[in-house]
UniProtKB/TrEMBL annotation:
GO terms for molecular function: ATPase binding; proton-transporting ATPase activity, rotational mechanism. One of its GO terms (cellular component) is vacuolar proton-transporting V-type ATPase, V0 domain. It comes from Hibiscus trionum. Keywords: Coiled coil, Hydrogen ion transport, Ion transport, Membrane, Transmembrane, Transmembrane helix, Transport. It is found in: Membrane. Pfam families: V_ATPase_I. One of its GO terms (biological process) is vacuolar acidification. It is a multi-pass membrane protein. The chain crosses the membrane at residues 422-446, 467-484, 547-565, 577-600, 636-654, 762-782. Residues 93-127 form a coiled coil. Essential component of the vacuolar proton pump (V-ATPase), a multimeric enzyme that catalyzes the translocation of protons across the membranes. Required for assembly and activity of the V-ATPase. This is V-type proton ATPase subunit a. It comes from the Eukaryota. Belongs to the V-ATPase 116 kDa subunit family.
Length: 824
């Protein structure tokens, strides 16, 4: 994109760039290189000429599939590098021209090698984890059998000694009975050893008991440290178990239960003498596997580093190729199948650059025939394109969030650069808070190069994107804060001493009646003597309320004036005579007059009641004004203004629909086959002006007089009621400014000064901490957001609805510069 540098918006930001529909006829042999050069240029929005075909029926579907497969491999490499803790190389390596076929082969080989390494590594790691578990089973089960053998030996000795001591006549008979027992009927016990997750151990024990009807003996010993599970690869707390059973049926049941509970079984030799040898053997195998795994990881890391060094270059190549073939699929194939035909929108200023790119592509591809460039004439509405820079883009986004400007209509973004931060500052006026906001923004501006290349969180990224908007808001807040004379709600005598002094000591907290003027008027902003007096709130309320009305009427007048420039630009005389003029008369006859009275009252120091004047201007326009008269001839002027306001309503409503009908009839009387001129087309499109209709073929439309009249009626009612409601809406400037000021006073007096008054260091520190958190959390975050949203509403509703249609569509060129922001 051709973004302009500098801090100030170019004057052509007032209207979008002049666009043209162009047609390119490109030879097939140079088509790929041509589209590549046009992508580098980034100034054409291609139209899809194959919209009737599915993606699989298009010419370059196979190439897109190949690129998609390569993009999948690149995503696989990226995932593997992130898992291994590697980052892709950000250094801008010298971009070499890589052949797509060679890259495809190379990526396939690297993927196969990496998959094989991963599979081998996983297999080795699983075997390693199994051996660790096996060693744990051998140790714990060995301890159990050893302790069981010791207990059994001790019991036999005890029984033997007891039998030796209790000789009787019956003893030989019993021994003879024991020896005569059939050896084949003796029950032989088997056992199974393994590990079971600790969280499942209780359920495991219950199920074993129920399945075998209690004919098992289960012994569990918890492992001290979590064990890496061979299957899942996660750390799990486990118990070593030994299950004794009798019979094959019981064994089969136990094996199935072990499988269901994810219990890993390991063999344990019945010959307890071999236990030590097995542990030594397993330990040896573990150390060997560990060495093998480390060697495999080293090789894998080397491979990933090699990929990482060239990852960005390959990734950009794949993205570019995919976008080139996607664009080529939007082009239609000529009947001779030797040329591709492209259509698209481009700015008029880019024609020379596009032609140069076409010539360069034809030369570089050794094409015998060059591409043909020609401009098409169309009645389709072009896209809207504003050349913005890093400063103006955020303000333009604020406007575009409401609606993209119609092609070449007046752009409110130019005025938003000043009016938006100013209206914000009117509500946020405190130069202490403004400085805090400015310092926070300065952090983003100073480090913008580093932060722009990083992945930020959602809120941080949004704040970073609007850093210049917040900077302007903070600067204007410092300015309005100096006017209000508030620094965290504390007044300062920055521009000189106060003009007022106390008549005596008793007037400190009294009304302003107790003050006498002893010096010249305070040169800039509110006199610090007002702060702290009982008259502070009535005085500031009156000042801010009147100021809000003045600012609101001024901005609404600006909106109506911009509608005049729109009508002049589109040669629409109807909108000038029957929309702009009556709207200006109506608004200024009522609220323009109110603004005039406010200024006169300020200049003369009159005690006139403006509420009374405005109300009785409607209720009793012929009554005498008495003490409310501000200037000679006021009564006659009010009657004239009231009559003008009443006349302007039918002036807006009635003539326009009838004139549109007459123009339509004149145009179609004997002119059915005459092409429409641009001026006539604009006039005819007025029939659908209020419904935001555009891009229709008006030649064959019936003129619906009733529909046009209803739309004009709605538009008139909306403006008349909106003039009142919109003016009242600007009073939010006064309300939020008052709320911000009073919250600052509360935090300063009831937190900071209160903590200061205790003469206790701990209470003072706590008070300062609470004051800082309250100021940052409430005043610098919540109040900033609140004032931002209210300023946004004033621009979208009160200002832009006077002239801005916002029913266009954005210019989205084919550009490689935009590929970095897109995810596959």
């Amino acid at each position: 994109m051709a973004d302009r540098g500098g801090c100030c918006p170019p004057m052509d930001l007032f209207r979008s760039e002049a666009m043209q529909l162009i047609q390119l006829i490109i030879p097939v042999e140079s088509a790929h290189l041509t589209v590549s050069y046009l992508g580098d240029l980034g100034l054409i929005q291609f139209k899809d000429l194959n919209s009737d075909k599915s993606p699989f029926q298009r010419t370059y579907a196979a190439q897109i599939k190949r690129c998609g497969e390569m993009a999948r491999k690149m995503r696989f490499f990226k995932e593997q590098m992130l898992k291994a803790g590697f980052s892709t190389s950000t250094k801008s390596a010298a971009v070499t021209d890589i052949d797509l076929d060679d890259l495809e082969v190379k990526l396939g080989e690297l993927e196969a090698e990496l998959i094989e390494m991963n599979a081998n590594g996983e297999k080795l790691q699983r075997g390693y984890n199994e051996l660790l578990e096996y060693k744990l089973v051998l140790q714990k089960a060995g301890e159990f059998f050893a302790s069981a053998r010791l207990r059994a030996t001790a019991q036999q000795r005890e029984i033997g000694s007891r039998q030796m001591g209790d000789e009787s006549i019956e003893t030989p008979l019993l021994q003879e009975q024991e020896t005569s027992t059939d050896l084949s009927k003796q029950v032989k016990l088997g056992f199974i050893t393994g590990l079971v997750p600790r969280e499942k151990s209780m359920a495991f024990e219950r199920i074993l008991f129920r399945a075998t009807r209690g004919n098992v003996l289960l012994k569990q010993v918890p492992a001290e440290d979590p064990v890496t599970d061979p299957v899942s690869g996660e750390k799990v707390e486990k118990n070593v178990f030994v299950v004794f059973y009798s019979g094959e049926r019981a064994k089969n049941k136990i094996l199935k239960i072990c499988e269901a509970f994810g219990a890993n079984r390991y063999p344990f030799a019945e010959d307890l003498g071999k236990e030590g040898l097995m542990i030594n053997e397993v330990s040896g195998r573990i150390s060997e596997l560990k060495t093998t795994i480390n060697a495999g990881l080293f090789l894998r890391d080397n491979l990933l580093r090699t990929i990482g060094d060239q990852f960005e270059q390959w990734n950009i190549k794949v993205k570019k190729e995919k976008s080139i073939y996607h664009t080529l699929n939007m082009l239609s194939l000529d009947v001779t199948k030797k040329c591709l035909v492209a259509e698209g929108w481009s700015p008029v200023f880019a024609a020379k650059q596009i032609q140069e790119a076409l010539q360069r592509a034809a030369f570089d591809s050794n094409s015998q025939v060059g591409a043909i460039f020609q401009v098409l004439h169309t009645r389709e509405s072009p896209p809207t394109y504003f050349r913005t820079n890093k400063f103006t883009s955020a303000f333009q986004e604020i406007v575009d969030a409401y609606g993209v400007a119609k092609y070449q209509e007046a752009n409110p973004g130019v005025y938003t650069i000043v009016t938006f931060p100013f209206l914000f500052a009117v509500m946020f006026g405190d130069w202490g808070h403004g400085i805090c906001l400015f310092l926070a923004t300065l952090f983003f501006i100073v480090r913008e190069k580093k932060l722009s290349s990083q992945k930020l969180g959602d809120i941080t990224e949004m704040t970073f994107g609007g850093r210049y908007v917040i900077m302007m808001m903070s600067l204007f807040s410092i300015y309005t804060g100096l006017i209000y004379n508030e620094f965290f709600s504390v007044p300062f005598e920055l521009f000189g001493r106060s003009a007022y002094a106390c008549r005596d000591l008793s007037c400190r907290d009294a009304t302003s009646v107790g003050l006498i003027k002893v010096r010249d008027t305070y040169p800039f902003g509110v006199d610090p003597a007002w702060h702290g007096s009982r008259s502070e709130l009535p005085f500031l309320n009156s000042l801010k309320m009147k100021m809000s009305i003045l600012l609101g009427v001024a901005q609404m007048n600006l909106g109506i004036i911009l509608s005049y420039f729109n009508a002049t630009f589109f040669s629409n005389s109807l909108n000038i005579w029957f929309q702009f003029i009556p709207q200006m008369i109506f608004l200024n006859s009522l609220f323009g007059y109110l603004s005039f009275l406010i200024i006169v009252k300020w200049c003369t120091g009159s005690q006139a009641d403006l509420y009374h004047i405005l109300i009785y201007m409607f209720l009793s326009p012929t009554d005498e004004l008495g003490e409310n008269q501000l200037f000679p001839g006021q009564k006659i002027a009010q009657i004239v203004l009231l009559l003008l306001a009443l006349v302007s309503v039918p002036w807006m409503l009635l003539p326009k629909p009838f004139l549109l009908k007459m123009q339509h009839e004149n145009r179609h009387q004997g002119q059915s086959y005459t092409p429409l001129e641009s001026t006539d087309e604009t006039l005819l499109s007025e029939a659908n002006h209020d419904s935001h209709g555009h891009g229709h073929d008006h030649d064959h439309e019936e003129f619906e007089f009733g529909e046009v009249f209803v739309h004009q009626l709605i538009h008139t009612i909306e403006f008349v009621l909106g003039a009142v409601s919109n003016t009242a809406s600007y009073l939010r400037l006064w309300a939020l400014s008052l709320a911000h000021s009073e919250l600052s006073v509360v935090f300063y007096e009831k937190v900071l000064l209160l903590a200061w008054g205790y003469n206790n260091v701990i209470i003072l520190i706590v008070g300062i901490i609470v004051f800082i958190f309250a100021t940052v959390g409430v005043l610098l975050v919540m109040e900033t957001l609140s004032a931002f949203l209210h300023a946004l509403r004033l621009h979208w509703v009160e200002f832009q609805n006077k002239f801005y249609e916002g029913d266009g569509y954005k210019f989205l060129p084919f550009s490689f510069a935009l590929l970095d922001d897109e995810d596959d």
